[in-house]
Amino acid sequence: MICSPPRIPNGNFRPQEVSYMEGATITIYCNSGYHFKVVSGQNTAQCTKAGWVPSPECVNVTCEPPPEIAGGKVQGVRKSKYMPGERARYQCWQGFHMTGDSTVACENGTWTKRPKCTGKSEKCGPPPVIESGDLLSFPQQEYASGATVEYKCPSLYVLKGSPTITCVGGQWTTPPVCLVACTASEEDMDRNNIELRETTKKKLYLKSGDFAEFKCKVGYKQDPASSPFRVQCVEGTLVYPHCKPGRTCTVHESDMEKNNIQLKSSLSHHSTFLYGEYIYFECRRWWHAKSSRAEEFKVQCLDGVFKYPRCHNIFG
């Protein structure tokens, strides 16, 4: 049994090979905010007759913002995403009493048990403060049941959820979050030997949820272990694909003579070409191509190999 390299969104693995024999083991490395889906402490998968066991997957273990509670609120700024182990603290409105631990923790994508605030008032305190977002009105210290407030997000951020929240029985309904944009920088792309597929910009800004497409730079080829080249911005995070160096091609005079061709002088001034680079040929004097298709004389270097066109005797 031979296993192909696995595709692991939001993660990577070592060692990286073209194929793996039965019994081979790989170690899984998940991106920040993701964990290998199997039992804690194990991060390896083995090539078996059934394929990779266990299935090499990285699952999201970040938490959504902590939920609102009646008679109280989350202290400080509510972030759009919390990492495993991060904590949040609740406080009760004035006149309410807390039972339970005021602090909750993010564990495996969920929050530990939140406290309760008990009291008789149905009024709400100041509305929650959300990360990167603002209220459209000046906050008050107290709101009557049924009162509403509205949020907005800055440019290039995406507002997720309802922009309006309501005070209901001493508890605000769930506030929205402002999802941060992603930046595809030239430095990050250079580090992964990639570039944007359809633009010459050195930097690209994407709203959360938008997609970007990448391609390998000339001289590089797609790494079999790479993540997909169509990448979605997820709350400020881009998982970059990766390319590795490809073999160069060398044009030999003897091969050109055998095929009655030469390098097109106006476009080619060297005999060594990078992976993915195009080589332009033309017929030598007194020789001609059987086909009139110009693309046959535009040949791409593919990992050290390219296919020579051939010309024929003009008198033949």
Give the topology, please.
Blueprint (H helix, E strand, L loop, with lengths): L1 E2 L7 E4 L5 E2 L3 E6 L3 E3 L7 E5 L2 E3 L4 E3 L11 E3 L2 E2 L8 E6 L4 E3 L3 E5 L2 E2 L4 E3 L10 E2 L3 E2 L12 E5 L5 E3 L3 E5 L2 E2 L4 E3 L2 E3 L1 H6 L2 E3 L7 E3 L4 E6 L3 E3 L7 E3 L10 E3 L3 E2 L2 H6 L2 E3 L8 E2 L4 E6 L3 E2 L9 E3 L11 E2 L3
Parallel strand pairs: 10-16
Antiparallel strand pairs: 1-3, 2-4, 4-6, 5-8, 6-7, 9-11, 11-13, 12-15, 13-14, 17-18, 18-20, 19-22, 20-21, 23-25, 24-26, 26-28, 27-29, 30-32, 31-33, 33-35, 34-36
Notes on the structure:
- The chain is mostly beta strands.
- The chain folds into four domains: 1-60, Complement Module, domain 1 (Ribbon); 72-178, Complement Module, domain 1 (Ribbon), CATH 2.10.70.10; 181-245, Ribbon (Complement Module, domain 1); 249-313, Complement Module, domain 1 (Ribbon).
- Helix content is 4%, strand content 37%.
- The protein has two helices and 36 strands.
- The strands form 14 sheets. It has a four-stranded antiparallel sheet with strand order 2-4-6-7, with no helix packed on it. It has a four-stranded antiparallel sheet with strand order 9-11-13-14, with no helix packed on it.
- The longest helix is centred in the middle third of the chain and has 6 residues, at 186-191.
- The protein starts with a strand and ends with a strand.
- The model has no long low-confidence stretch (mean pLDDT 88).
Q: State the shape.
A: elongated
CATH names the topology of the largest domain as Complement Module, domain 1
Main sheet: strand order: 2-4-6-7
Number of domains: 4
Radius of gyration: 30 Å
Main β-sheet description: 4 strands, antiparallel
Low-confidence stretches: none
Helical proportion, percent range = under 10%
The CATH first-level class of the largest domain comes to: Mainly Beta
Whole-Å distance between the termini? 54 Å
Q: What is the quaternary state of this protein?
A: single chain
Query: How many strands?
Result: 36
> CATH homologous superfamily of the largest domain - what is it?
Complement Module, domain 1
Q: Helical element count?
A: 2
Q: Architecture of the largest domain, CATH level 2?
A: Ribbon
